[in-house]
Design a protein that fits this description.
Blueprint lengths: L2 H12 L5 E3 L9 H4 L3 E3 L8 H4 L7 H6 L8 E6 L13 E6 L10 H5 L9 H18 L5 E4 L2 H11 L3 E3 L20 E4 L8 H8 L6 E4 L5 H6 L5 E5 L3 H10 L2 E4 L8 H7 L4 E4 L4 H4 L6 E4 L4 H10 L7 H9 L3 H22 L6
Parallel strand pairs: 1-2, 3-4, 4-5, 5-6, 7-8, 7-10, 8-9, 10-11, 11-12
């Protein structure tokens, strides 16, 4: 249940009669409220070991998403970080896309996934060819979206750059009722909550804490787990997957959370602020949009271990007001998100009523 799944949960609460269409559904991996909904899955879910190897099926995603049958829908809402926004809808239907990011694998994060040391050198020419084809498809199918919503101003800029489209900015929801301050004082460890994937730049954390004598705990799983553990210093503890109750206690007990990568939005700092804890985030990307430097955390601009270490060291001389942290988090609450999405969808429906059916693309 990462940020995209939490957006999906709010969308399903807003539209309780909707059918959910997805490339892949692994039952039990998301909230019971999602599992309980009518779910139409693409053929990707029937491929060998799809739950573990779905990234290997990236070349098939265009065929899979265009094969999803939403022809009975007057309104289609896609929650997209890869291919969902390319679903084929009727000319008279309204398509609102909540875009977490344009397909990062083929745009500005290609080397994070297919660069030296991460992908066999002999296959890199094929990967470049695939990326070029997917970029063309991704840009072309953006025309099928009536209204783009971005999760941050940073992503809105990427949508404008790659698709040539404007996007309304609505940050994703944070469950500020569940994530709340605890009775204890801050602990003496710092915390990372992240998928263990290349673009999160977790090597930066490991090197920044090496020799510091300060504990850093890392929550999350992913394909980079083995490699990161192998290069981790004694200060790092990998906790793997934790449930929501454990995560809340980790937030409440940490000194601060860290967000070292270029994030599309970065929901972790806001969840930490809801629990009364500050965040240290990198200046580029959506993460810095939620943090008010000096009031709810620190923003570092030097993307090196030294730069992160300097920001972490600076925490020792600062005091953060838990009420200010909590107030900032509440501006990203689930209720705020759902009101803004409902109003956005209503405007899109009204615009279609006034403009009439758009031509098929």
């Amino acid at each position: 249940m990462r940020g995209g799944e939490k957006v999906l949960l709010s969308l399903l609460r807003l539209f309780p009669d909707a059918t959910l269409h997805t490339l892949l559904h692994v039952r039990g991996s998301v909230a019971p409220e999602i599992d309980a909904r009518p779910i139409e899955e693409s053929f990707v879910g029937r491929l060998p070991r799809a739950a573990e190897r779905y990234r290997s099926y990236l070349p098939l995603f265009p065929l899979a998403v265009e094969g999803l049958d939403v022809s009975g829908a007057d309104l289609v809402i896609s929650s997209s970080h890869c291919a969902a926004k390319s679903v084929l809808v009727r000319p008279d239907a309204v398509h609102v896309c909540y875009c977490h990011t344009p397909m990062r694998y083929v745009w500005d994060r290609f080397d994070d996934y297919f660069g030296p040391g991460r992908f066999p050198a002999a296959l890199r020419p094929a990967a470049h060819a695939l990326a070029a084809a997917l970029r063309g498809w991704d840009r072309w199918t953006a025309a099928g979206v009536d209204h783009f919503v971005a999760n941050s101003a940073y992503v809105a800029g990427r949508i404008a750059r790659y698709y040539g489209r404007d996007a309304e900015v609505i940050p994703p929801p944070v469950d500020t009722e569940y994530f709340s301050p605890g009775p204890g004082a801050p602990g003496d460890y710092d915390l990372v909550v992240s998928a263990l994937v290349p673009y999160k730049r977790l090597e930066l954390v490991l090197e920044a804490y090496r020799g510091s004598g300060r504990e850093v705990r890392l929550v999350g799983t992913g394909p980079e787990a083995e490699r990161l553990r192998a290069q981790a210093p004694p200060e790092a503890r990998f906790l793997g997957r934790v449930d929501d109750a454990e995560l809340r206690e980790l937030y409440r007990g940490c000194r601060a959370v860290l967000l070292p990568g270029v994030e599309d939005f970065g929901i972790v700092p806001v969840e930490a602020m809801a629990c009364g804890r500050p965040a240290v985030v990198y200046a580029e990307g959506g993460g810095a949009e939620s943090v008010i430097a000096g009031e709810t955390g620190l923003v570092f601009e030097d993307p090196t271990p030294r730069g992160l270490r300097a920001a972490v060291d600076a925490l020792a001389g600062l005091r953060f007001n838990p009420q200010v942290l909590r107030s900032r988090a509440e501006s990203f609450s689930r209720d705020v998100f759902e009101r803004r999405i409902r109003a956005c969808v209503d405007r899109a429906l009204e615009a279609r009523r006034v403009q009439g059916t758009r031509p098929p693309w």
